[in-house]
Amino acid sequence: MRVIRTVSELRSLLRTERLAERTIGLVPTMGAFHAGHRSLMERAVAAHAVTVVSLFVNPTQFAPTDDLDAYPRDEQRDADVASSAGVDYLFAPSVDEVYPAGFATTVSVAGVAATLEGAHRPGHFDGVATVVSKLLNMVQPDVAYFGQKDAQQALVIRRLVRDLDIPVRIEVCPTVREPDGLAMSSRNAYLGTDDRVRAIALRRALDAAEAAVAGGQREAAAVERVARAALAEYAVEPEYVALVATDTLAPVDRLDGEVLLALAARVGPARLIDNTILTTTDGAPVSA
Ligand code: AMP
User: pLDDT tier at 70 (50, 70, 90 boundaries)?
Assistant: First the structure.
C-alpha cells in the first residue's frame, strides 16, 4: 500500500490506473480505524481493482466547541489496518493541502442537511459536503462507500452528487457493531468504563422501538416515547430521538413502510449517534 500526501501525486497515479481501465473505489474516513471502517474497505477492495482510502480529520466539519483537537489519531496503526484490508492507496493529506491559503468555497446542501445532526451541529454538513465534493473530484472514483451509521450524512452526499452531477455511485454499507450492540465509532475511545456500560443505551433504545413496532405500535410519538424510556433507564439524555422519512428526513406521525429512527446522545465525554430502519408491511400488496 502506498501513502500519498498530495493531490498532484494522487492524480498522476490514478490517471495511470484509469488508463489501464481499472475501476476505482473510494472510502472517505477520518481515521482511527475500527471494524466499521474495515468493512467499507473490504467492500471496496472486493469490487474494484484499485481502492483508495482517504484519511483526513476535516477541521471544517467540527464546530469550535467540538472535539477536533481530541479526535483520536494514529496514522501508523491506520496504515497497517488499511494495508491488511488490501487497500492500494492511503491518501492522507495535510490540512494545507486540502485547504490552501485563500480557500473560499463552501458546498452547502439544503433540505436533508438542515435537520437532526444539521440542527444540532451548525455548519457540520457544510464541512462534510465541501470535503466530500473535493475528495470525489480529487479521486474521481467509480464508487464511493459510506456507512449507514451516519445515515443522514449518506443522504446529504447522495443529494450533493445528484445536484452537482458528480459521476460516482454512492454505496451505503451496514452499521458494524460491538458484540453488545454498540455501534462502532472512533468516538467510543472517549468512553471510560462506566460510560461504556451506559453507551449501550442507544442500541437498547433502538431495540425497544423495534420491539414496540413488532408488537403492533404504529404511532410515531408512542415509539419515540418507548425509545426515550429505554435511554432514561441508563440515565442517558438524548439530544434528539426522531422518526423521519428515510429519503427526506421529514417527521412522520404514523409508521407505514420504512421509517428511520435516528438518535443522538451525549454519554460522558462522547457524543454518540445511532439509527435503525423500522419496517412495517401493513397493507402491502400480497405478491402472487
Ligand atoms: P469516520 O471516520 O467516522 O468519518 O467514518 C468514515 C466512514 O465510515 C463513514 O462513511 C462512516 O459512516 C463509516 N462508519 C463509521 N462507523 C461505522 C460503523 N460502525 N459501521 C459501518 N460504517 C461506519
Answer: very high
Whether ligand 1 lies within 6 angstroms of the CB of 173 is answered as yes
Q: What is the pLDDT of residue 117?
A: 98
DSSP 70: T
Q: Is 184 in the pocket of ligand 1 (CB under 6 A)?
A: yes
What distance in angstroms lies between residue 189's CA and the mean position of ligand 1's atoms?
14
For the Cβ of 170 lying below 6 angstroms from any atom of ligand 1, the answer is no
Residue 102: CB atoms within 10 A of its CB come to 5
30 lines ligand 1 (CB under 6 A): yes
Question: 18: CA distance to ligand 1 center in Å?
Answer: 27
Mention every residue, 6+ apart, whose C-beta is less than 8 A from residue 161: 136, 168, 170
Beta strands 89-91; 270-280: pairing state? unpaired
**pLDDT band at residue 282 using 50, 70 and 90 as cut-offs:** confident
User: Is 34 part of the annotated catalytic residue set?
Assistant: no
User: Which residues, including other chains, have CB under 8 Å from residue 210's CB and lie 6 or more apart?
Assistant: 276, 278
Closest approach atom of ligand 1 to CA 148 = 12
- Segment 20-24 shows an average pLDDT of 98
Strands (E), 177-268: 238-245, 257-267
Q: Indicate whether 103 pLDDT > 80.
A: yes
**Over residues 209-218, mean pLDDT:** 98
pLDDT of residue 285: 59
Q: Which H helix or E strand runs over 235?
A: none
- Mean residue pLDDT of the chain comes to 97
The amino acid that residue 278 corresponds to is L
What are the helix (H) ranges across 65-175? 75-84, 95-98, 117-120, 124-139, 151-163
pTM to 2 decimals? 0.97
Closest CA to 4 of 143, 138, 144: 138
